[in-house]
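Question:
Write out your own:
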Amino acid sequence: MGRIKGSERYTGYIKYLNVIIFLCFAVWLTPHNLPLSGEERAMIGEQYHPFSKYFGVMAAKNAVVNLIILSTFFSFLIYRRSNKGETVRFSEQGKAGMIGIFSALGFCLLMLLSYAVSLSFVDLEAQTKIYVKPLILALYIQSFAVCLAAFLTFRNKGKLAQSMLFLVTAGIAVLYFWYYGFQVMQKANIVLRYLSVTQVSIVMSCLIMNTVIDILVFRKAKVVGDIVWGKMPVRSQYALLMLCIVIVILMGLMGFIRSGLRMDWHVYGLLQDTSQWAYTPTLSYMGRIVGLIVALFLGLVAFVFWLANLGDKKVKTEAEV
């Protein structure tokens, strides 16, 4: 946003988004079982840590992942409107605006209501099926919120509609399902799969509806500043390089972890490697190997760019002569 004139109005939100994403990542990274010794477990008095156990389960991780998605999407919206000023009333957008809103509304309602109806017919025991009813109610509430957002947009209150839909979605998919997920895990663990799909459906409806509203509300808005192309702070390039390194290392390690779970089985449970050479490397060893591979790969990429740069310099020198 630093290269967009007029984005200064929204830069204050960035620090709050960074804090939210950092805290969510910390929750996502929290393990359920801490590496405790027998003495430490005796001091705690239970198998799990009394504080971190609430952040290491799937209910908490699903909630914070959806909050990360909403936060990232919010940053996308403020980036889109960074250089936009006064908007045109939605009633002046013509048929294109109406078609866009009704199309998004229809798709979101179809997605939410069809899944709500399907949940009514899931084959579960009676004492377990009662835990599905809050999921159906949440889908109906989100459907109403989407309809209300469309209505507010038609009333030339698109920004209010977006804020309302964000709050309802975060309240249901993050706060309520974080709490309700614990109840489901304790009393009806099988319902957790339906809860996850419900969360995704609710968040997706928010993303789709808010995107369409944002596009239409700022469709003919006054431009208050131009985008300065080619202006990029140095720290952003370091961030991109670090992101590249982390992603490649993560892909390598996760690939090994998936394969390493087989241990000494060629086909787990069917064909075991009984030879004396059967061996599964440790994570630390594979971390070093993957790190070495990443360094060699990025080194080769840098070498290719260096060679290309030499060719450009040679052509430039010959042209000057």
Observations:
- The CA atoms of residues 296 and 302 lie 10 Å apart.
